[in-house]
Amino acid sequence: MHAFARLAVVAIAAVSLAACGNRNEVGSVGVDWTGNDISIEAVADPDVDGVVCHLAFFNRSFIDRVSQGNWFEDPSYSALDCSIVGPVTVGDIATRAGGEEIFQQGRSLIWKSLRVTRIYDAANNSLIYLAHARQVQQGSGKMSLSVVPLNGADVTWDNGAPTAQPMQGSVMVQ
């Protein structure tokens, strides 16, 4: 009887978590009869006004979780596209090569998360947004990339624009 009680508690917890709505979700597309969905969220860059990213990712259904036996994990696959939606105001952003994380969402109970990292490309005056999974045990090569060019856009830098740096190791075409 204890095993049945544990299964019931886990099932209730999974259904409760699945029922929680996301205020950033702009759409959801059903992909099969078991209730699996592709969710699309709008992710605003907290330090760059006027740029929004749309992130699509897979949400497993209750039926899929029961049939696969893996209750607490969603796949890491994602797609990302970012664009300018108004005048751009760039706040205090990291300009180092590793960039900075602007979004994180758990894809399993503890081990895996989906993240969006912003990197500033000074040589090309562009913001690069990288969606990627982070797994503690095995890592992940699943990623998606979007580039927002700032040349020709209405851009204001709160702390002054960084100086452009020539690309190293390649020829810049003008």
Explain the overall architecture:
The chain is mostly beta strands. The chain has one domain (23-59, 73-157). It has 2 helices and 9 strands; from the N terminus they run H-E-E-E-H-E-E-E-E-E-E. The protein has helices at 2-19, 62-68, and strands at 25-30, 37-44, 48-59, 78-90, 100-106, 112-121, 126-135, 143-149, 155-157. The strands form 2 sheets. A 5-stranded mixed β-sheet has the order 1-2-3-4-9, with no helix packed on it. Strand 7 and strand 8 (143-149) form a beta hairpin. It starts with a helix and ends in a 17-residue tail after the last strand. The model is unreliable at 4-22 (pLDDT under 50). Keywords: Signal. One of its GO terms (cellular component) is cytosol.
Order of helices and strands: HEEEHEEEEEE
Estimated helix fraction: 10-25%
β-strand amount: 35-45%
Q: Which strand order does the major sheet show?
A: 1-2-3-4-9
Alpha-carbon Rg, integer? 20 Å
Q: What is the count of structural domains? A: 1
The outline comes out as: elongated
Average residue-wise pLDDT: 75
**Uncertain spans:** 4-22
Decide which structural class fits the backbone: mainly beta
Largest sheet: 5 strands, mixed
Total beta-strand segments: 9
Number of helices: 2
Distance between the termini: 73 Å
Protein name: CreA protein
Signal peptide: 1-18
Keywords: Signal
GO cellular component, one term: cytosol
